[in-house]
């Protein structure tokens, strides 16, 4: 857990310092939101989950979509939105993972749906 926090914070710092990477930024902000959720800061976590969604849609991120959807819908937003609304994005994460070679996270999305 401590190593995850270090990796997420360093990735966040790189994205903020050198500009958003369209592929890594959504999963970075989603993971940062998950860290807030672990620290019982639900409002902040939802803000970062929504930011990750916005970045993913705006930049049409494809390769890390499975990772972002796993964190956003599988680990996070189900606390604020009905679980039924998480189903389609998780299936989309599965399809993106299969299409772009991220079968591990794609299958996690499928399992969570």
Overall, the morphology is: globular
Give the class from helix and strand content and strand pairing.
mainly alpha
Q: What's the helix-strand series?
A: HHHHHH
Tally of discrete structural domains = 1
- How confident is the prediction overall: mean pLDDT? 89
Query: Treating each run of at least 4 consecutive H or I residues as one helix, how many helices?
Result: 6
In helices, the fraction of residues equals over 70%
List low-confidence stretches: none
- Oligomeric state of the chains present here: single chain
- Terminus-to-terminus distance: 24 Å
β-strand number: 0
Largest sheet: none
Short description:
With 113 residues, the chain is mainly α. Helices cover 77% and strands 0% of the residues. It comes from Grammatophora oceanica.
């Amino acid at each position: 857990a401590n190593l995850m926090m270090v990796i997420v914070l360093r990735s966040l710092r790189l994205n903020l310092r050198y500009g958003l990477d369209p592929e890594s930024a959504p999963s970075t902000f989603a993971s940062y939101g998950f860290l807030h959720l672990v620290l019982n800061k639900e409002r902040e976590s939802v803000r970062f989950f929504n930011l990750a969604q916005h970045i993913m849609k705006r930049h049409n991120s494809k390769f890390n979509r499975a990772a972002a959807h796993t964190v956003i819908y599988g680990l996070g937003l189900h606390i604020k939105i009905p679980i039924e609304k998480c189903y389609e994005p998780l299936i989309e994460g599965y399809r993106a993972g299969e299409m772009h070679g991220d079968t591990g996270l794609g299958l996690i999305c499928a399992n969570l749906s």
